[in-house]
Amino acid sequence: LLTHALFKALLFMCAGGVIHSIGDSQDIRFMGGLSVYIPFTSSCLMVSSFALCGMPFLAGFYSRDFILEIISMRYVNVFGFLLLFVSTGLTV
User: Fold this and answer.
1) Cβ–Cβ < 8 Å for 31, 70
2) Pick the residue with more confidence: 35 or 60?
3) What's the Cα-to-Cα distance from 26 to each of 18, 21, 23, 68, 77, rounded to whole Å?
C-alpha cells in the first residue's frame, strides 16, 4: 500500500504541475501538447500512472504480486480467493 500511496502522490503532484503551467486553469481544452513544454512532468505522470496500473517491472506490479502470492499460500475460502483475483484483474 505504501507504493500505491507514493505513486498516487506523484500523480497528483504532476497534475498540480500541469495546472500550474497553464496558468491555473483547469480547462482541458488548453492542455493540448504540453508534453513538449514540460517533458519531465509528463514522463513522471506516465510512469506513475503505469505503476498504479500494475505494469510489469514497476513497483505496483511487484507489490500486488507479493500480496497475491502471500494470500494464495494461506487457506482462504474459494469465494474470497476468486474475489481477490477478479478485483486484481479489474484494476489492471
Assistant:
1) no
2) 35
3) 9, 11, 9, 38, 47
